TrEMBL record:
Quaternary structure, from the entry: Heterooligomer composed of large and small subunits.
Entry keyword set: Cytoplasm, Exonuclease, Hydrolase, Nuclease
Protein name: Exodeoxyribonuclease 7 small subunit
EC code(s) of this entry: 3.1.11.6
Reaction equations catalysed: Exonucleolytic cleavage in either 5'- to 3'- or 3'- to 5'-direction to yield nucleoside 5'-phosphates
Intracellular or extracellular location(s): Cytoplasm
UniProt cross-references to InterPro entries, sorted A to Z: Exonuc_VII_S (IPR003761), Exonuc_VII_ssu_sf (IPR037004)
Lineage: Bacteria, Bacillati, Actinomycetota, Actinomycetes, Kitasatosporales
HAMAP family to which the protein is assigned, alphabetical: Exonuc_7_S
Top-level division of the source organism's lineage: Bacteria
GO MF, one annotated term: exodeoxyribonuclease VII activity
Role description: Bidirectionally degrades single-stranded DNA into large acid-insoluble oligonucleotides, which are then degraded further into small acid-soluble oligonucleotides.
Similarity-based family: Belongs to the XseB family.
């Protein structure tokens, strides 16, 4: 599994795709307890990366909408 530094460098799509694979492997079963725990921990790291990207995107969208709301509409 990757380190925290590698995880932080992942883009949203990369983290999402790897998270989907982690969930698939956990749901499929057949792993040892140790493997399952490692997968779970990796999934938690990947979920944090996805949350970080989504929160950043939401902040940018909110800022853009706020900036757009202060400008006059064309024709006014």
């Amino acid at each position: 599994m990757g380190s925290g530094t590698e995880t932080a460098a992942l883009g949203y799509e990369e983290a999402r795709d790897e998270l989907i694979e982690v969930v698939r492997r956990l749901e499929a079963g057949g792993t040892t307890l140790e493997e399952s725990l490692a997968l779970w921990e990796r999934g938690e790291e990947l979920a944090k990366v996805c949350r970080h990207w989504l929160e950043g995107a939401r902040a940018r969208l909110d800022a853009s909408l706020a900036a757009g709301g202060t400008e006059e509409e064309p024709g006014e």
